[in-house]
Amino acid sequence: MLLGYDKDGEIKFIFTDERYLENKYPDNAAKISNFWGTGEHGLTELFVPIQEFPGWDDATSYKIVDGHLIKKEA
């Protein structure tokens, strides 16, 4: 899964089709610019296996801190 997050760690982009990513962009080579068509999106990419992110369907409840997914406190 490809995630894009801003400087505050807020997830702003998520692409979950791992088979597509591996076939089209092997070895985690996909970039957000491949999907948005712009290189100036201000996001950082992170690849995470979908099985390691069980809450991906509620991604706004998570943020990325130091390259790790963290559940936000309520």
What structural class do the secondary elements suggest? alpha+beta
Q: Globular, elongated, flat, extended or rod-shaped: what is the shape?
A: globular
What is the N-to-C order of secondary-structure elements (H for helix, E for strand)? Answer: EEHHEEE
Low-confidence stretches: none
Count of individual domains:
1
Strands ordered across the widest β-sheet: 2-1-3
Number of strands: 5
Average per-residue pLDDT, rounded, comes to 93
Helix content class: 10-25%
Q: How many angstroms does the end-to-end distance come to?
A: 25 Å
Largest sheet: 3 strands, antiparallel
Number of helices: 2
> Roughly how many Å is the radius of gyration?
12 Å
- How much beta, percentage-wise? 25-35%
Description:
With 74 residues, the chain is of the alpha+beta class. It has one domain. The chain is built from two helices and five strands; from the N terminus they run E-E-H-H-E-E-E. The chain has helices at 18-24, 32-36, and strands spanning 2-5, 11-15, 44-47, 62-65, 68-71. The protein has a three-stranded antiparallel sheet with strand order 2-1-3, with no helix packed on it. A hairpin with a 2-residue loop joins strand 4 (62-65) and strand 5 (68-71). The protein is globular, with a radius of gyration of 12 Å. The chain starts with a strand and ends with a strand. The relative contact order is 0.26. The mean pLDDT is 93.
